[in-house]
Write a structure and sequence with these properties.
By secondary structure, the protein is α/β, with parallel strands linked by helices. The chain is built from 19 helices and 16 strands. It folds into two domains: about 190 residues, 3-Layer(aba) Sandwich (Rossmann fold), CATH 3.40.50; about 200 residues, Response regulator (Rossmann fold, 3-Layer(aba) Sandwich).
């Protein structure tokens, strides 16, 4: 299939997702904690004074029974079988201060979900394989199931979380391509009027909407775009992400290139002539302010390893010239002898379009992708299988930082859904299920850690004091500490195996881990990724 035909076929969806990328990318550098031990230090608001009359909670890990009847002790988690729940809190009784903040009463904490209903959006979603993104109905069902279980297990100090969904007036496609800011702001006002303490709109969000929520003093957990840490910090105490942010992604890519690819032959390329060449690197990125920031940060990170890209290609999603842009960039990469293409600020559509054009041009380099989405750093086998169906020769040479999935039924997001949903309820698709679970887990954890006096300020303080995750969780390691709004701390390097059976959906084709599944810390990737030898990917031992 030629790139022009591909663009005609996918253009509406392309505009939608690049919007993700338009929005998908911006934040500088704050060193993350690298400890896997508990980061909890008693109550999250231990250095914030309580209003008169409010009953304080006991320090985390104190002896007693939790609200769910779990025997609490040091090191026990609020949900004992969760890798990500915070350290337990004994059942609390007393005065919670009532309406401590907008969206909070003596008995409820309100969160909102914005849903888009439009013909254009329905047509866009119809172009996606059903197993990739899911529906608004499935998202609400999943959120309600998670909330039901967490309301039972978490200490919320006499309150419970209530979900209110509403139909947005904004145009998601226009928002994500830089327009319709006024309607995004109007939707944030609607969320505020519904009593939102926090918003959990998952895929139905944009940079404009998230910023507008912060302006309304509503907490948000955007999933479908990456920013750098500085941008998240500018919106404190209102914006958080499960991560990884683009700074972490850049750290992973730069260390991979600098330690284990620079100066070595491109053995993972599909072209026999490229396989014997010493690697030369090219970067492709989406030409918008957010992606430009992340791409610039990536180039600077590569320079610390004495690596400079030999060719950089930028593109934008304009219907008139997108096909020509893709053709020209691939031609330039091929003419420059680029052996290894780095997709900076990757979105779920453009890699497939570029790989299809490369395959059509009989150009088969190595491909190094950044993580697709935030929301737990879960790799998406269904999406990659979609790429592979269109460009199988290229997909077989892809490497990406991420976390390999375990069997779906053994993952805690699936377990919580089954506990909280009606018997025949349909959840989000397997990997999207984690997108919903990660921010809801973070929300409830910080609410518990904040104590009865819940405000955006105590929430932020609590977030920084949350318990680091236990090893071997589905999202990799989560670490917390001062200034951390993105807890994602670890990654694996993954490669596409067209013959592997996916743990996510049981179908053929899956991302498999390099280095026998070893995880690396973003903050220590430079020290941890082996230096001077080939990556142990594609069945190689390095």
């Amino acid at each position: 299939m030629t790139v022009k035909k591909v663009v005609v076929r996918y253009l509406p969806f392309t505009i939608f997702i690049v919007a993700l990328v338009l929005v998908l990318s911006f934040v500088p550098s704050i060193s993350k904690s690298t400890s896997s031990a508990s980061n909890s230090s008693g109550t999250g608001s231990s250095n914030l004074s309580l209003p008169p009359g409010v009953t304080p909670q006991l320090p985390s890990g104190s002896k007693g029974l939790t609200v769910a009847g779990v025997k609490c002790a040091p090191g026990v988690r609020q949900i004992p079988w969760s890798k990500y729940a915070p350290e337990c809190e004994p059942a609390w009784h007393g005065n919670n201060g009532g309406a401590t903040a907008p969206g909070v009463t003596g008995s409820t904490i309100t969160i909102t979900y914005r849903e888009f209903v439009s013909t254009d959006l329905s047509e866009i979603y119809s172009l996606l394989p059903k197993q990739i993104i899911g529906t608004n109905s499935e998202a609400v069902t999943t959120l309600k199931a998670d909330i039901k279980v967490f309301n039972k297990y978490f200490e919320l100090y006499g309150r419970h979380v209530v979900l209110k969904s509403f139909t947005g007036k904004g145009d998601l496609i226009q928002e994500m391509t830089g327009g319709d800011q006024a309607q995004a702001e109007a939707d944030a006002v609607t969320a505020k009027s519904l009593g939102a303490f926090a918003d959990m709109s998952l895929a139905d969000t944009s940079e404009f909407y998230t910023s507008a929520l912060a302006d309304q003093h509503v907490i948000a957990f955007p999933l479908l775009y990456l920013q750098n840490r500085a941008a998240y910090r500018q919106e404190e105490p209102y914006i958080y992400t499960p991560g990884p942010d683009c700074d972490s992604a850049n750290e992973a890519i730069a260390a991979t290139v600098g330690n284990a690819m620079k100066g070595l032959p491109a053995v993972f390329a599909g072209d026999p002539q490229l396989k014997t060449k010493t690697r030369t690197f090219g970067i492709i990125y989406n030409d918008n302010p957010y992606a430009q920031t992340c791409e610039s940060d990536l180039v600077n990170s590569l320079k610390t390893y004495n690596v400079s890209p030999a060719k950089v290609g930028s593109f934008n999603f304009t219907p008139q010239n997108l096909p020509e842009q893709i053709i020209n960039i691939i031609e330039q990469m091929k003419a420059a002898g680029i052996t290894t293409i780095i997709f900076a600020d990757e979105d779920p559509v453009s890699p497939g379009l570029f790989m299809q054009q490369a395959q059509a041009d009989n150009y088969h380099p190595e491909w190094l992708f950044l993580p697709s989405f935030t929301g737990g750093n879960i790799d998406a086998d269904a999406l990659n299988r979609h790429f592979a169906s269109e460009a199988p020769q290229e997909m077989s040479h892809v490497i990406v930082p991420g976390i390999a999935s375990s069997k779906a039924s053994s993952q805690e997001d699936y377990k919580v859904f089954k506990l909280g949903a009606p018997p025949k309820a349909k959840p989000l698709p397997t990997y999207s299920l984690g997108w919903a679970y990660a921010p809801v887990m973070l929300l409830f954890s910080a609410i518990q850690q904040a104590g009865p006096d819940l405000t955006p300020t105590t929430f932020e303080n609590a977030f920084h004091h949350l318990t680091d995750s236990a090893p071997n969780g589905m999202f990799g390691q989560w670490n917390f500490g001062p200034n951390i709004v993105d807890p994602a701390a670890s990654f694996q390097l993954l490669w596409w195996d067209p013959n592997a059976i996916s743990n996510q959906d049981g179908l053929k084709g899956a991302m498999e881990p390099c280095f026998s599944g070893k995880q690396f810390l973003f903050a220590k990737a430079r020290q941890q990724i082996p230096v001077g030898s080939q990556l142990a990917c594609f069945g190689s031992n390095g």
